Amino acid sequence: MNSVFDSERGDYNSVTELEHVQQKAQIKAAEITLLLRRHKDKPMHGVFFNNVGDLGLSKCLTFAFLRSSGLESETEGFIMACQDGVFNTSVYRSRVMGIEVHDTRCRACRETPETLMHLLLACPAYAVLVCMHRHNAALRVLYYYLRHSYDIDETPVLPYAPGGIEFVVENEKCRIYWNYPFTTLRLIQANKPDVVLLEHQSKTIFVVEFSAPGDTNIVRKEEEKRIKYRDFLFELRRLYPGHSVKKIVLIIGVLGEMMSSLLSNLEIIPASRNKAEILAAQM
Fold first, then answer.
1. pLDDT of 206 higher than 90
2. What is the value of pTM for the model shown?
3. Looking at the 3D structure of the chain, how many domains does it have?
4. Which of 44, 163, 247, 257 is deepest in the core (most CB within 10 A)?
5. How far from the centroid of its chain's Cα atoms is residue 87's Cα?
6. Helix boundaries (H) for the chain
7. Residue 158 belongs to what domain range?
């Protein structure tokens, strides 16, 4: 190999004219560009990666779990397999593996074809329990981090630790509500946000809402969450006069997709300002 393609300039540079370190960097960049192009051209495996780019999502945050979440390699591989669509559903066995499947309907609900997205988002047999477990498991990362940051817990609690979560915990620094139904001065439908943090010293209330939709619904879901709790924010200002109320919407796709705005939303909370990327990856 006597030359390397320069993706920025669109031409080839002679590697013999480069220093040793530059040679390695050029070759590595060319290999990455080639592998990425081959991956994106695959009709099934490239769908997830193409969607991340086409929908304007953050590649850095979406794949941050590979660097910062502390997962075992087997778990990382399982997540990557789901992102590539390589999951042993009835539709996958029939259409991809070529196995004769007499009925590709979901084996749990028997209503629609058994695809990965159906199992993750739409299956009525799983939607209530499994989706709620996934929602809470991700949000517990932030919740327990806040408890530790404000000295409610002496040591961080693992987000997957068994046991229930108290609806309200408090010390001299803050009060934290988890899935708590607030009593308001007038009747409103959305009165139970995911997490509410009340800082005593700054007199600031942070209302956190989280969701894990499909990748094509990420932008729409964020807007829905902001509209849904407008009345609740108004009522909080009436219940806590003199307090500043801030709304924080966190959206992470069901397969880990994230928008760049997720970091800026996390950074609204002073305690998570310096840990935003790590928290996002762990979530």
1. yes
2. 0.82
3. 1
4. 257
5. 20
6. 20-40, 47-54, 59-62, 65-68, 73-83, 90-95, 116-117, 129-149, 218-228, 230-239, 261-266, 276-282
7. 135-282
